Amino acid sequence: MTKSAPAASRSYADRTLKLLWGRAAGRCAVSACRVELYVEKTEHDPAVPIGDIAHMYAHGDSGPRAIQSLSAKQRNNYENLILLCKNCHARLDGQKNRNTVEVIQQIKFDHEAWVRGSLPERGRSRVGWRPIIVEDQWPIDSLTLDAALVPDYATCSPKRINASAEGRIWPDVATDTRIALEGVLREGDVFDKRIAVFPLARITACLYVGYVLTNRPNVQLFQFHRDECTWAWPADAIVGPIPTVSFTGNKNPKHILFVFELSAKVNAEPLLCDLPDPMVVSLALEEPNTQWLKHPEQLRQLGILARNMFENALIHSSSDTTWHILYAGPAPGAVKVGQQLNPTMTPPTQLYEYIHPRHVPSLTIEHA
User: Which of 33, 115, 209, 305 could join 25 via S-S bond, C-beta 3.0 to 4.6 A?
Assistant: First the structure.
């Protein structure tokens, strides 16, 4: 007979309890409820907390949404817990097929965002941002998005865009991405909207996201800092070196090649051999490196440089000119560059992905 695993302990660290109760403001996390989870003291009795600390993945091996491989520490950490009233706790656990872990995570995120937006006296700004996550085949952990937006806050849970080309062709990725982004842009006045973009996907996807967003809405971009595992900009960050721009080649070309060298050198020679007498527009750091992007000001400057590159190239473009973009740099930089492509003026633009040992065509943007 197989011996069953022991039930997980319900011991919680002080820090976990403070985060859980504090971020929930002592209320049930279900938006249709949000009842206060304590009873005020009376003349004869003390105040009494009446909330339940509920688990997303069950605290025991036989509970709802259980995963037996999780340790007691994993089951009882803040990320796996949600504060509920007894009624909502019973409903979420009793209807476990409908209330998946993903659903409950969303309930928790939405509630904590509501708390931040409703209590400006906590020292937070009143400015809210609509978060968008652009991810590849591996989902992005959204737990550090809040810290990146401080002192502002997220107005709702992140809109996740799966920009992976795994098993798909790039035109299909572009179509799905455009539909998702246009849905966000239709939410209210596009000029008053504030959109926070957290991209960690392939260059083609990031360039296309920027192209769809354009410069119309107020877009704030974030870089994932791998060493610190956070989206928050370093508090002690300084603005790094500014790239330089150069133009070479034919002044009346049928092809204009834009080369961005921020994180690495780009070997454009194989492509140049295929393009008859092109103009080459290069934006490059003297010493490209993967740690260049440390401050949002660098993204602003990159956007200005890219826009000037494209506007100057338009002077030399004709009705049969094609643009080509080779980009080696951080994901948010690609979004910023894509924002500078004018949907009504720039020629058809060919994007590329680097697949060793050369760049290969991925997606052609046919402008309006």
Answer: 115
CB 116 within 8 A of CB 153: yes
Q: Is the pTM of this model over 0.85?
A: no
- 145 and 154 Cβ atoms separated by less than 8 Å: yes
Q: What is the mean pLDDT of residues 36-53?
A: 86
| Mutual angle of helices 331-339 and 203-213, in 10-degree steps | 40
d(CA 129, CA 119): 16
Residue 190 CB coordination number (10 Å): 15
User: DSSP 3-state assignment of 361?
Assistant: strand
CA distances from residue 71 to 13, 80, 285 in whole angstroms, order as listed? 15, 12, 47
Structure confidence at residue 1 (pLDDT):
37
Residue bearing the bigger pLDDT, 107 or 205? 205
* pLDDT value at residue 190: 62
Helix axes 331-339, 296-315, angle to 10 degrees: 40
Domains and CATH numbers, the chain: 14-112 (no CATH), 114-221 (3.40.50), 244-365 (no CATH)
Where does the chain have alpha helices with state H? 14-23, 72-75, 86-94, 101-118, 145-149, 170-185, 203-213, 269-274, 296-315, 331-339
> What's the pLDDT at 40?
83
Strands 349-355 and 358-365: antiparallel
CB 313 within 8 A of CB 256: yes
Residues found in the chain: 368
